[in-house]
Amino acid sequence: MSPRVTLILFLLAASLGAFVYLYEIRGADQRKDAEAKAKRLFPGVEVSDIDGISLTTTEGKSAEVVREAGGWRVQKPVVAPGDPVALDGMANALAELSSQTTIPDPQAPDVYGLGDASRIVKFRAKGAEYELRIGKTAPVGSNTYASTADVKVVHTVPTYRATTFQKSLDDLREHRVLRFDRNSIDRIEVGWDGGAVVLEKKDGAWRVTSPLEGPADDDTVDKLLSDASYLRADGFIDAPPSDDAMALAKPEVTLALSGKAPVAGQPPTTFTLKLGRPLPTNPKRRALRTGDGGVYEIATERIAEFPRDVTAYRFKEVSRFSPTDANRIELTFRQDGGKPPVVVALDRGEAGWTSKAEPLVPGKAARLAAELSHLRAAGIVSDHATEAELKQHGLAPPQVTVRVLGTKPASGQAPLLADVQIGTSDAQGAAAKSSKSETLYRLGPELAEHIPGSLAAWREQFVSKETQKAASAAGSGPGVPGELPPGAGEGQGGGNEDVFPPTTQQEAAPKAP
Fold this sequence. Notes:
Number of strands: 29
Strand content: 25-35%
Helix content: 10-25%
Distance between the termini: 92 Å
Shape: extended
């Protein structure tokens, strides 16, 4: 076959492929879209064109909403921000409402529920006025009768589209109490009965500036902003009585957020609210007033997470590292009666975390590493712990010392990722301290299940019971295989160091000459 014939055949094949793609594949989608648009009750109307909707609410009230530059707004029977989800859904339903079947020569409108009993939705798009009438449910299929204003043609439309317009007045209103950009906020003031705290963002980090100075807990601040931004009203008080009548005269919580000015040279944007005590008429709800004058009803449980303690906002991070960086965990347990401490070493390999000679309860060592990687205290005992305070809380010396090491380089020592000292425990939790800080913390009591506070707790919670039974049967006493005796490692203090190599007692014993 000559090259010229080959080229001609190639061009014919390419042309055929292009025709199949443009007509059969891409053209089919375009024809399908065109057919769908042709079935619309309001052809030519797009969602973005609709800027006003009027309807009767389920309570029988005449309501009007308009779309403005900042979003939807209810204009009647009250003036209030509109709910963007509900009203965008209505606009979308109006623009895309399509006929499933048509009755070109219909009977009287009342037969289809399209007479005086119909639900009427009016809307405006690009200056033109439109009307939708919604009637009875059709006897066949999940459809509802509908028509435009003249009722010359009766359509059936999907019932789920028709029910989009069954809204109460509250459904049309914005339920979010505060609408702000979380990233723009750089100052927070929280007040409560008997206390207050001021937080400011400086150089990208949050700090407590009153009633004391210090770093803030970023997670707590982020959650506060998140809770405030998603705080939703459970009801609206459009004609509020006095603050005394709404238990707002002495608010339980006040919140003020300040953000960057939208335009240079203008004052910063502020968002404020004050939350009252339980309403005298409904103890399960509280009144909430925002800075713009809006008054709402809020269910009590919605504000349960707002911290009302200065310590809650303070930095309480005892240790932090990436769990994937941890390669070794060393635990040193203090013993009573002058007995030398017991050291346990865990190493992470292909099989996960293991101890040299003792099987562990599956998953416990991994959970220990995970907890240590983002260990946060529940409270602060002292910012600058004295020696007397350390002794009082069992930290001089500590009951348990936990060191987490990274991967050891070819030369030098493995990086120290965490060094946590744990003291005595009580019902409120265990005292704890990081070697990197003078702050004395209080760990939450729930952490005792995942971070051992004593040798007994280690043996009870982390070491496989089968191993302990085997050791007892062999007459090895209460010791646990894999625990290292003092002096077995490469420490610098003759046996009281925290770091020991993963060797058994037999390996560490000196060889006979």
